[in-house]
Specification:
Arc Repressor Mutant, subunit A, 9 helices, two-stranded antiparallel ribbon, single chain, D-Maltodextrin-Binding Protein, domain 2
Length: 292
Amino acid sequence: MELRHLRYVVAVAEELNFGRAATRLNISQPPLSQQILQLENELGVRIFQRTKREVRLTEAGKRIIAEAYQVLGQVDHLETVAAQAVKGEIGSLCVGALGGVNDVLVDTLQVFGKRYPGVHVELKYMCTSEQIQNLREGRIQVGFVALPVQHETLVSEFVKEQVLRVAFPKNHPLARRQRVPLSALGDQPFIFFPRRSTPGLHDLITGMCRKAGFSLNVVHEVDSIVASLVFVRAGLGIAFCVAGMEDKSDGIVYRPLQAPEPRIQYGMAYKREAQSPVLNSFISVVRRLVRK
């Protein structure tokens, strides 16, 4: 028995006329009659009662047609699912992200969720180095990281750029300035993150400070910029952060550095050889949003 046999019997059952069913199936009538007879012999039951005047379903035929509808419906559903999977319209995706709110990520999730409601998205917050490790091991499929990312198995694409700021406790003397020279931070207690958590950003900031003639006086370590703000609010030091974080705490004063203002680049990273329709759909949404 083949699927075409089921389509043949359904067409005849709906038309109750071999000629009209043959026309609908775009085949000639004799082969259709032959195929129906072959199926009846294979099943050992008559599906149709035939006379010169009419074609009628037998009682057994009614049950067989009901089952045929179910089988064909499942096949049609399978074909639909396969087509959606190929287009990246269904499936699952695990996304890594840095702590804090990333506007590009938020916009991507909004657009992607509306366009591909059949895709289940899981969001995991972790530092850049953790994302790199999880990407390599296949635990996440795409990550939003601090650039640069240098790993032979990963691809990274620029997403956004943000200006570096300094976060001070509200009553800190330097908070009175509208712009803070980098050289004024040389003797300040800093809340900072270890290089292993976000190597690119760590090197950018420490290199910038070395050029200004000092090394960071790190008094407490945290795993992210967002976490550092907790210590700042507690008055235990100052921290670098990015523009747009001003709403994180009313106990903190954010000040820009004097020109030229340092900038941090963020990007999207994914495994070079781990492409999938769902991942490609997600990447396409990010790229369109970045271009806008």
